[in-house]
Design brief:
The chain is an alpha/beta fold. The chain has one domain: Ribonuclease Z/Hydroxyacylglutathione hydrolase-like (Metallo-beta-lactamase, Chain A, 4-Layer Sandwich), CATH 3.60.15. The protein has six helices and 14 strands. Strands 6-5-4-3-2-1-14 form a seven-stranded mixed β-sheet, covered by helices on one side. The chain has a seven-stranded mixed β-sheet with strand order 7-8-9-10-11-12-13, with helices on one face. α3 links the parallel β5 and β6. Bound molecules: zinc ion (ZN). Zinc ion binds next to loops.
């Protein structure tokens, strides 16, 4: 069973195949964070989707303290090394690579700050964290190629998709489950996640929306074949 805990904003703590994976751990400066960085007591891999402060967040400090591998676009991992992170894996948009026994791939994302989306594949689930992005048609390819069980989609508008675009994204990606993120952290990205759920019901039939509050987790059990 995979466990996905929303830590607020685009930050996640994911347990997959016995590994603890953090994504975009923006915690100490995050008004919506459900944990303090010092409360994180294990991390094997830390993915960072791009260079903006609300995504790099506390990644380098946590990696140094816990010995986690920082994974992201090559230039970002150079910055991690310069900040004293011992284990880094610089990648780029391409195909699968292995990190700590988990398969991962970086996908395009339309945003600034040298962005990417992240595919994480274990035995228990395939997860797509879209990073910060606007809507783009190749999300359909991402869906066809990686068949994510779970898609984590930003809905805050202003910097990323709003519920309207994110519902179309869900229809292109066709995950089993879509979970909204990157909203209600600040007033500027105030959105109603139930509006996203309503639009997905209309535009992306068969996709289940799970709405979490920061600190809540969703447990995904893959159906037996
Ligand atoms: Zn950003």
């Amino acid at each position: 069973m995979a466990r996905l805990e929303w830590l607020g904003h685009a930050a996640w703590r994911i347990e997959l195949d016995g590994k603890v994976i953090l994504i975009d751990p923006f915690l100490s400066q995050n008004p919506a964070a459900s944990v303090k960085p010092e409360e994180i007591d294990r991390a094997d891999i830390i993915f960072v989707s791009h260079e903006h402060f609300d995504h790099v967040g506390d990644a380098f400090e946590i990696a140094k303290r816990l010995g986690a591998t920082v994974v992201g676009m090559y230039e970002l991992t150079v910055k991690a090394s310069e900040a004293g992170v011992e284990k880094t894996l610089g990648a780029n948009i391409g195909g699968f690579f292995d990190v700590e026994g988990i398969k991962a791939a970086l996908t395009p994302a339309h945003h600034s700050g040298n962005p990417c989306g992240i595919i994480i594949r274990g035995e228990e689930a395939t997860i797509y964290h879209a990073g910060d992005t606007g809507l783009f048609g190749d999300m359909k390819l991402i869906g066809q190629l990686y068949k994510p069980d779970i898609a984590l989609l930003p809905i805050g508008s202003l910097f990323t998709m709003s519920p309207t675009e994110a519902a179309v994204a869900a229809s292109l990606i066709k995950p089993k489950v879509a979970i909204p993120m990157h909203y209600n952290t600040f007033d500027a990205i105030k959105q109603d996640p139930n509006e996203f759920a309503r639009l997905v019901r209309r535009k992306a039939k068969g996709v289940k929306v799970v709405v979490l509050n920061p600190g809540e987790a969703y447990e995904y059990q893959r159906k037996k074949r």
